[in-house]
Amino acid sequence: MPLSNRPTLTQYLIEQRRRFPQASGTMNALILDVSIAAKAIARAVACGELGDPAARELVAAAQSHAPIEAPGEAARPLDLVSNEIFLRTAEWSGHLAGMASEEMAQPYRIPARYARGKYLLAFDPLDGSGNLDVNVSVGSIFSVLRAPDEAAAGGREVRDADFLQPGTAQVAAGYAIYGPMTMLVLTVGNGVVGFTLDHDLGEFKLTHPDIRVPDDAQEFAIDASNARFWEPPVKRYVDECLAGRSGLRAKDFNMRWIASLVAEAHRILMRGGVFLYPKDTRSPGRPGRLRLLYEANPIGFILEQAGGRASTGREPVLGVRPAGLHQRIGLVFGSKHEVERIERYHAEYDAGTDRPYVSPLFSERSLFRPEALI
Ligand code: MN
Ligand code: MN
């Protein structure tokens, strides 16, 4: 199909809405607002050290109303600019009762001069921002929830508890990736579609009408520098991958690690694989590193809608009932059969029935077994 015949995001959303005549169109308008935020952030990111003149104004605006930064990694200027872009592009339309961001300690209240709507928007405005200095892909992640009726009607301000809904309650989720191409990947609970930004037109065009994650994979992604903190089932899985063709899996694996969740998710959506940032033993009080509301739930929803699977290792991530706005969680997602295997290893470990893999190099008859070396 020639590029000119590809539907734009707007056309796509209108056509989808024709299939559901009872829909109000509110969700479409909200998604279009988010897509404008993505375009503005893409530009700010692409300017790099040159600086985006539009972003400079936003830094000043961000400082004036001073959103209190959420506890966690130090925010960079572009994190705050991106946060500001999300707030400004989504607050005015009357579709939202409130917003929550990785960058703000408290939920954002819609200013009184704007109408309130029935949805809540949660987002990580700039995911992987540590990659900016080295010019590697970053992204934005968003999740749409329904607001409780009292808050939706504008009867009261939103509060933390309004956002503490399990991932299964999401009505839409998506991410934008700012890489060699700027893309928007989206689900409204009816499969996953991908759009590529046509910079000349300033429009997202449908390029990936039905994204499916293959059930099997030859690629895994994990930060191996944390290996000494891994729980035994994670170590067992990775050891088996590393053993490759000569091991229990009888096939070779590749390893990848980009340190940008959006980029990892995108690779897996395009060609399969599995990503692990599991709970580890480093700080027993901390059940993982990624944020449940802004990262794990939206990415999990997209993955499951694409036929993949998302898990904490012990339960489906979308079933977890959040306890706090900035709650962190262990996350494993990707090709279904790999994630199921990792879940099985956790279950076997917890039940005490696991049999960790032993490399043939260190097995009974091996010359390399420790006693033989003495
Ligand atoms: Mn992030
Ligand atoms: Mn972020």
CATH level-4 homologous superfamily of the largest domain: Fructose-1,6-Bisphosphatase, subunit A, domain 1
Q: How do the strands line up in the largest sheet?
A: 2-1-3-4-5-6-7-8
Structural class: alpha+beta
Query: Helical amount among residues, as a percent range?
Result: 25-40%
What does the radius of gyration come to? 22 Å
Into how many domains do the coordinates divide? 2
Sheet having the most strands: 8 strands, mixed
H-E string: HHHHEEEEHHEEEEEHEHEEHEEEHH
Quickly give the CATH architecture of the largest domain.
Answer: 2-Layer Sandwich
Number of alpha- plus pi-helical segments: 11
Hetero groups: manganese (II) ion
Beta strand %:
15-25%
What is the class of the largest domain in the CATH system?
A: Alpha Beta
Counted beta strands? 15
The overall pLDDT average reads: 91
Low-pLDDT regions: 370-374
